[in-house]
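Fold sample X.
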Amino acid sequence: MSKPPLKICVVTGSRAEYGLLLPLMKALQKDRSTQLQIVVSGMHLSPEFGLTWRQIEADGFAIDKKVDMLLSGDTDVAISKSTGLGLIGMADAYAALKPDWVVLLGDRFEAFAAAIAAHLAKIPVAHLHGGELTEGATDDAFRHAITKLAYLHFTSTETYRRRVIQLGEEPERVFTVGALGLDTVKQVKLLSKKQLEAALGIKFAAQTFFITYHPVTLEWGTASVQMQNLLEALDQFPEATLIFSYPNADAGGRVIIRLIDEYVQKNADRSRAFASLGSVKYLSALQHVTAVIGNSSSGIIEAPFFKVPTINIGDRQNGRIKPVSVIDTATDTKSIKAGILKAHTKAFIEKCNDMQQPYGNGTAVPVIIREIKKCGRRDSIKKPFYDLPQ
């Protein structure tokens, strides 16, 4: 008699996270020995961020549960309350679905709530992208907390694998697989520049920038000033085409969205803003722009795959391993402008073309599925604390 399929529940709370999880979800959907379950929460269910749960269904997936947890405010109090609502909703979702495994990626408060609920329900968690650092964001602590709540770990570099082990996780449960986003890059059929221009409704110029700026959530009230400085720097490049992507649903995010909308309205001939582009258009944009600007992890992980320079602004990504294509700048207008100028020099472009990608080669998915299946159904999520050798 054949065994029932292993029920693997993938939780996603944001458009960016879903884009990374997409190849894993497709592989689980095709695998007859696994049953894919999908729980959608956070930004996916918000009209403000594009109701991106619709894209998940358009991609051919059935959503098993929706956990509506995102309050309309973007204050620290609202984020704390949203996390609490997420914990309640995830507990109900797991009770109904009874998954054998929960898969979580990264470090956001939605994933943190999902990890707590899974731990309390005694469901093992497979965590992707642990061990990384983003010292300017509250996400940094969430990520390490999820590591301690997880049973299996799949890291993007060997350095991050060692850090997860340093947090007390047994080496045999920690695997270096590379960045999951590179699996997506290798699998999707990207749009040509002409197709992308038609899809976005804008013409690419000799210089075309993709801009994503998130609040630095461990700083007090800096989002407005920093975004204004960035926009002033962009004013110094009046011939450039500008493509903006809204920030995540974090404390301070709304002021950034307002400033973007006002700027695009004043510069409608050369700029567009999007709540969500979806994986194909987003990755196609990374392929065709001349620079990525902001403080998103995508500029450090996915953009280098396309040999595109990244101007990484401020402290949000401090501690993350950065390819040579990344130019770190301060948050003032002068520094940002200098970074953009450097990114477009012949010497730096040649440097980008010759660099090595530190985040793997897009083969993470089969290893992740293999190791989860090897663990199978767990009678217990007990685990010892692994002490580093003296």
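Fold sample Y, listed below.
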Amino acid sequence: MSAIGQAIGRHIDVEEIPPETAQQELAGIMPGVVIDMLLAAWAAAKGQPAFVTDTVFQLTGAQPRSFSDWAVEHAHEFMM
């Protein structure tokens, strides 16, 4: 179950789409070179652990929080 799904107590299906479909769907939102760069980066990162830094703390002085914690705090925004 996704972090948002857990936060709202519902199962959310996540469907992977082919790069060609992503390019078509994103074409009106961002330039093609950006789409290509993002798709290449996501493909290279697939199955790899996330790169973690202390940048949030360095910039804000506050401890970073997990995406799951953020999703719980914002669950009301995902309720339909």
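Sample Y note: The CA atoms of residues 20 and 35 lie 10 Å apart.
Also: Residues 3-77 form one domain.
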